Amino acid sequence: MSSSSQDEIIEISSSPSSLDNDSSESSQTTPGQNVPSISSLSSSSSVSQKRSLFKSNKRYQSKFKKEWLSNPRFSAFLRECKSDPTKALCCICNIQFSIQNSGSGDINHHIETIKHKNRSKAVEANRCTTY
Q: What is the CA radius of gyration of the chain?
């Protein structure tokens, strides 16, 4: 059984460049040599794959910025959500919406929704003008 496992190791550890050479010393292994086993090769590659997946999943999350409140386009309806810094509150629609993906882009997207447009028109129509 040990001779068949050595044959498997020889097949895996031999590279195309060593097959091109006529040197038989580089492609043969002796029982005393340290040759990585199949299980150690696969486990080390799976660990590196897990690390690369972990690094790629880490993303920046936008948080509410106080400077948005001074923007005249946002100041009429936008409020900070006290319970979650990655959300904003629309006073016109009375909803919380996420700003974690693109920050002000998410606010602009909310402004373009039909619900917000309809409610903004209703607020403007009902606004009391005093002289």
A: 32
Task: Name the nearest CA neighbour of 75 among 62, 66, 83.
Answer: 66
- Strand order in 95-98's β-sheet? 78-80, 87-90, 95-98
What is the C-alpha separation between 87 and 90, in angstroms, rounded?
A: 10
Question: Domain ranges in the chain?
Answer: 66-126
Residues 121, 97 contacting (CB under 8 angstroms) = no
Give 24-44 pLDDT, tens digit per residue.
444 555 565 565 555 555 555
What distance in Å separates the CA atoms of residue 21 and residue 126, rounded to the nearest whole number?
A: 88
∠ at Cα 86 (82, 91), nearest 5°?
55
- Give the largest CA-CA distance in the chain: 101
Tell me: the pLDDT tens digits for 71-100?
Answer: 999 988 999 999 999 999 999 999 999 999
